Amino acid sequence: MAKVVFVVTAANGWTLKDGTVHPTGYWAEELAEPHRLFRAAGWDVTVATPGAVPPTLDELSLGIAGGMPSKRKVMRQYLASIQPQLDSPIALDVVDEDDYDVVFYPGGHGPMEDLAVDETSGALLTRRLDSGRPLALLCHAPAAILAAKKSDGTNAFNGRRMTGLSNIEERLNPFAWKAKWFLEDAVKTAGVEYRKATLPLRPFVVVDGNLYSGQNPQSADALTERILADFEQ
What we know:
By secondary structure, this protein is an alpha/beta fold. About 30% of the residues lie in helices and about 15% in strands.
């Protein structure tokens, strides 16, 4: 049986430049849809977080920002069905990425708070990228690459092609004007060859060797389906 580990943020807030903390966590669609698709394909799915802390759902992701009511209802029901697993994640520091066919990072603003500075996650990402085995990051999850450093101090993802939430998409959030930094700017500074769709909020996936990335929540299905299709070849 193929195996995937979801590395999920443990943060429940995002600290803004005025010192306030915006409640956040993982984005519903970015965890629920890939989890559902992997499981439907017969994969074993493991959830890991820093410190084995149960991840927090960003309630905004099941509000208007999460899409049509019927879609949000389905996602809420699916998340409820896997809640026992979400309540008991394994600790990120015990994950051996070699045990998994795919390492998958879903997003939400949470990774901007914790995974962006998590050395354990950064080391895992660096090893996985170097291994040539599939690694995927979705929406805000590429913030985690900021903690991925080579021995010379340069970013492990320098020169790689990726996407992630664009500046224009971030600015659609009413609290974005208080953000300390935007994802697109940060990954470019790290040396990533950033790509994005012509129009915001449209599915967009970039594949660079073993590195898979999706731009936004709308890319969750397309990213997962691309990974599954490539794995079957």
